[in-house]
Amino acid sequence: MKEIKESTETEAPSGLNDRIAQRVRDLRAARGLSLDALATHCGVSRSMISLIERGESSPTAVLLEKLATGLGVSLASLFEAPAPAADPVSRLASQLQWRDPHSGYVRRNVSPSGFASPIQIVEVMFPPKARVAYETAAREPLIHQQVWVLDGVIELTLGDDRHRLETGDCLAMVLDRPMSYYNPSRKTTRYAVVIATAPSSWR
DNA sequence: CACGACTAGACCAAGGCACC
DNA sequence: GGTGCCTTGGTCTAGTCGTG
Q1: Could you tell me if A20 and A77 are in contact, meaning their C-beta atoms sit under 8 angstroms apart?
Q2: In terms of residue numbers, what domain contains A98?
Q3: Residue where one domain finishes, among candidates A79, A113, A130
Q4: Which residues touch strand C (CB under 7 A)?
Q5: Torsion of Cα atoms, A22 then A96 then A136 then A191, to 10°
Q6: Do A110 and A49 fall within a single domain?
Q7: Could you give the percent of chain A with pLDDT greater than 70?
């Protein structure tokens, strides 16, 4: 069993999988959903949900997004610590990174983990030629997201709308329809994602 | 071709309920 | 109270599929 690294390197999968497991279990219990109910709700088999909740699987970003949609939370919140953090400062060395086993993209939760805030910031390193397609659907409460490209280029498709973002560009969106990310370039694209949970009056 | 993610279905355990 | 049946919730396993 590997130890969780206190560095900016990608966390050992086992440690982060345990955190995701705890989060999914807690969120499902809080909503009073059985494995079967959540499976029906999000389109993931209950076997897979059970494996994730026991930390025995390394789910892909696409699958986690489906789970997050079914649970009505953002993908980023699945990486949060179960208990609220007392420290409002998130140090670089303690920010957890997670690598999508499918596309190889690496995301780092920048915001203080577990701190009660409607805003979350995530940094993403997206490999060249990689592509990730999410079957995102509307959630309650509504989740707003802005993608700010720090270095490189990313093609973002939202429903039928396609956007090419280059260094410095920023795209605002609402997570209510399928979306995909594609890096058409030969170098890794670095971008920041700012996620906000909106009250219904924002619509 | 090996490996890991994922699914479908079988299987198991526990709880509720009706019946004797 | 004991038994059998059904439902619910969870785990296990065999097989498929995609990727490197």
Answers
A1: no
A2: 84-202
A3: A79
A4: A 34-37, 46-47, 50, 53-54, 102, 104
A5: 170
A6: no
A7: 86
Query: Domain check: are A107 and A169 in the same one?
Result: yes
Nearest CA among A199, A75, A56 for reference residue A137: A75
**How far, in Å, CA of A13 to CA of A60, rounded?**
12
Higher pLDDT, A200 or A22: A22
- Chain B: positions less than 7 Å from a protein CB are 4-10
Task: Say how far apart CA A203 and CA A124 lie, in whole Å.
Answer: 27
Q: Are residues A63 and A96 in the same domain?
A: no
Paired residues of A161 in beta bridges? A158
Q: Which nucleotide is nearest to A13 (CA to C1')?
A: B4
CA of residue A87 to C1' of nucleotide B1, angstroms? 49
CATH classification at residue A93: 2.60.120.10
**B20 C1' to A193 CA distance, Å:** 66
pLDDT tens, A133-190?
887 777 777 889 999 999 999 999 888 899 999 999 999 999 888 888 888 888 889 9
Task: Kindly report the average pLDDT of chain A as a whole number.
Answer: 79
Residue A13 pLDDT greater than 50, yes or no = no
